[in-house]
Amino acid sequence: MPEGPEIRRAADEVEKAIIGLPVSEIWFAFPSLQHYKEVLTGACIKRVDTKGKAMLIRFDNGYNIYSHNQLYGKWYVRSSYNYPSTNRQLRLAIHNEKKSALLYSASDIEVLRDEEVSAHPFVSRVGPDILSEEVTADELLDRFYSKPFYRRKWASLLLDQSFIAGIGNYLRSEILFVAEINPAARPVDCTEEQLKKAAEATISLVKQSYETGGITNDVKLAERLKTKGQKRSEYRHWVFNREGEACRIDGTPILKVQAASRRLYYCPTCQK
Fold first, then answer.
1. φ and ψ at residue 167, rounded to 5 degrees
2. At the N or C end, where does the chain have fewer CB atoms within 10 A?
3. Residue 68, φ and ψ in degrees, nearest 5
4. Which residues have a catalytic role annotated?
């Protein structure tokens, strides 16, 4: 599943293609949305927002298209009416005179009025989004100490979208490694220094992943490893997907465990 940085990068691409110009045609796969074609055709798109793994396309007539990629959704941006060759099923198409933004495979699509967005079941419960909101380390620290979260294990907590929006499996492993926190620990078990590191790592790694297209390893180290001929999958992360390989800090073999029904990677010495 794409995580917050991937959704924000997709939103940037969609926004660049369709912002400003009037919609010449819009197409929905789902019958329940067909009547919105007339409402949205001719309107202009103001911006494309993200809320974690969800996207909100904002129109200038008070309407919004909400979509969630879920496991298999994928956006394509092409020249107008130039459809890709794919076995995926088209779910939403937005066309203007120059570009088409095409959403395939996703099944969670809705049209909402401006006043309905905040009450949407996903939007209303999702936590702060580091890539679309001003979120500080102190604000995250307050969240770590708050009653709904401070006694829950980090391994499940970081996947809870009501905690922090947009964090998924690879970011979970990477944040805990950089913060030197064992996956079995809870915020209440951590030192103040660990919690500060976790807050700072959450913000910095989410932003770095967005800016670099998914690299959470030290950027300079990743560049050196790339120059030496390593594949992207080999230099991309600190620990994620590196079971049995040497920790980049102390050489200890990286371990893989199942946590919250998902694979998690950590260094047993750096994250005692």
1. -90, 130
2. C
3. -130, 125
4. 2-3, 53, 262
